[in-house]
Amino acid sequence: MVYPVQPEETLDLQKIAGKLLRNWYWFLLSLTFAGAVAFLYNRYATPEYEVSTRVLIDQGGNRSNPLSAGTGVSANVFSGFGLSGSSWFYLPNQMAILQSRPLIAKAISELDFEVSYYTKGRVIETESYRSAPFQVLWDRNHPQLIGVEFRVEIASNGNIRVYAAAEEAGAYNYYTRKSEGKVSGFALDKTVRSGEKISGNLYSFTVLLNEGFTLNELVSYKFVFHTPDQLIYRYSNALTVGLQGKESSVVQLTIRDANAAKGADFLNKLAEIYLRDNLDQKNEIANRTIDFIGSQLESISDSLLISESRKQSFQSANQVIDIPMQTQQLLQQVKELENQRVNLETRNKYYSYLNNYMRSNQELDNVIAPSSMGVDDQLLGALILQLNQLVVEKSSLTSIRSSEHFRLRQINAQIESIKQSLIENTNSMLEQSEIALSDIRRRIGQLDWQVRQLPATERNYVNIERRYNLDSETYTFLLQKMSEAQIAKASNVPDSQVLEEARDGLMVSPRKRMNYMIALLMAFMLPAGLIYLRDLLNNKILSNEDLESVTKLPILGHVFYISAKEYTETPVLDKPNSPATEPYRGLRNKLNLMTKGKENPIVAVTSTVPKEGKSYTALNVASTFALVKKKTVLLDLDLRNSKIAATFKLESDRGVVDYIMDKKGVDDLIVRTQHPYLDILPSGTTPPNPGEMLMDKKLGDLLAELKQRYEVIIIDTAPVGYVTDLFQITEMLDATLFVVRHNYTNKNWLKNALEEVHVHKLKGVGLVINAISHKKGFYGGYGYGYGYGYGYGYGYGYGYGYGDKKAGKK
């Protein structure tokens, strides 16, 4: 039967798992190591906490403003300011503002984060926010060293030692908010009392011990100064802002910090600043509206006082109390037209103000709302609403420093477009308003002509009354608008509210359970990876699986390595009852099954290359047949490098070569051994043409004659990986033992040799794994109970695994 060679070896997880189970102690060692690493990391890693707060952003705008529930003009006092959440991008804009650097900078400026305190125990170092036994009071008007670790030691007598060293350090002035240069080779070591100032050219601070602190000699302390930019960068990167749900306007602010209390204080302050800025922006707009109306009231109040004084003086001088009905009707018509004129002139003033405002490129977030001046124009309101929305979005992009950013350039272009539209619209409205004013002035002029037809006293009174009513109506209108703006300002509240303040956070690092799970996984992966890498890098035969990955030929036996101390060249004959002989007895039994039904079988023993133990195997297999009283001959056909004669210390050089050359007969060449059932036919002198001699027909005659004399013929042949001598006698063989040496035979050489065996259709081939070392159990996967070995030199500088004592010392 011919067994084909296996395909290329691939990653076999099942094989790796099998090796891992057989080498469980490696897994146990890996598990112990990985578990210890996970424990130490969980115990001594600096913890990190996740702290969060929730803010509800009211997208309706003007929350709790009583004017927002009204109707008419007063209900829209602040429409068009971008403070309403009616736009679809209002919520994303507010989220961007919450994460913007200017807002974070404001929060940092109101927190005492410039100095960080640390406590170091035996192993780890943690930040001591609010828990350090001392406080650093530092001079803001004096430069301070940034990033230098000032270490603090507190003695039992209250003395404080402050020392620091740095190869290079930068200085920063918190008052001017500028860098003050760098210093090289900085060193400080000073002992002071609590409250005593420590100062130098680039530092100035005082260490003040807290009352009632407990001295702990097992820990040490330090403090470090930070610049505002460093703090802003750190917290802007650590802060995340996101919606709590797709349909929700609740925004969750989350930060990771090594100190939960410090992270909570930052988030609470940030939310406070955000609400305050929102309210300040509303109040600023209201203040500008009130100031604008106030300036108008100042001018009109003077006119009202003058007109009222003239009316009273005229009535007193001319004793006029009232005027006739016809004159009153005329006066009422004039009054109505004058009110229309005042409204148009007021609108014209707002249009002129807005037109000039757009042309002067002032801050666009301070535009006065049109409704505050009684201007009810939907197109104008829509344009101002879009403008303020873009201004709000632009303010949320303050973290973008490049003016060439795509979105920033797009917003600027849209703002310019809206400004041009506003200028064009206000120009058009001014023209239309002037036409309406001209018509009203014409109608007033017609009524003035009728007034001039009245008697002098009545005519003068009508003019005075008319002026007084005009000033009074204008003053009343402005007072109404002033009251609306003041009420709106008083009722202003932020558009958002804090639903839940930040408190003690959740520890997110180290994740102890996850780390232990990773350790368990690594306990499997590490030895499995080592096994895979060993199999990948080591191209030697190390296990049954390695052989099975190369060929499907059956493995007939496993022979273990014998140490030099227990070495013997013929263990089957010398120690027939030792455990080392059992593998050869197993091979004998399997050969009997393989050659069943064949008379006087011929069994060849070969290997891939020298030093694999084929001669030793052939000798001991032949010995096992002799032990069961089967007449056995060991035929040495390794004509190129025979070792049988040296093993038995034969003095004669006669052998097979002499038979083929017709120099001697079989009886002259047979060597008797001490065992009565075992004979040897050595190879003889090394010929110049061993390959051609094995093709001689005399070899066939020799084998035929040996089959007549012996029950079993064992042939020691040359390695098939080097020469093809064995294939010259393929038809004469009944079985072949192919010897593979553990941790020695190369997989590629073996594969090539077995391909030759397959091509030449060698019959009854079985594998023998030789020289298995129990020390290779991890990679080899052989878990057999006893471990024996052997070694032997094989000529050409090579040696088999069964040889002399020198070779046995592996």
User: In this structure, how is the largest beta sheet organized?
Assistant: 8 strands, mixed
Number of helices: 23
Instruction: Write down how many β-strands occur, each being a DSSP E stretch of 2 or more residues.
Output: 25
Strand line-up of the largest beta sheet: 16-23-22-17-21-18-20-19
Gross morphology: elongated
Q: Uncertain segments of ≥5 residues (pLDDT<50)?
A: 1-9, 62-86, 777-810
Q: Which value, in Å, is the CA radius of gyration?
A: 53 Å
Q: Between the first and last Cα atoms, what is the distance in angstroms?
A: 37 Å
The secondary-structure class comes to alpha+beta
Indicate the mean pLDDT: 81
Helix content bin:
40-55%
Strand content: 15-25%
Verbal overview:
The chain is α+β, with helices and mostly antiparallel strands and 810 residues long. It is 45% helix and 19% strand. It contains 23 helices and 25 strands. Strands 16-23-22-17-21-18-20-19 form an 8-stranded mixed beta sheet. Strand 12 and strand 13 (250-257) form a beta hairpin. The longest helix is centred in the middle third of the chain and has 59 residues, at 260-318. The chain is elongated. The two termini are 37 Å apart. The relative contact order is 0.11. Mean pLDDT is 81; it is low at 1-9, 62-86 and 777-810.
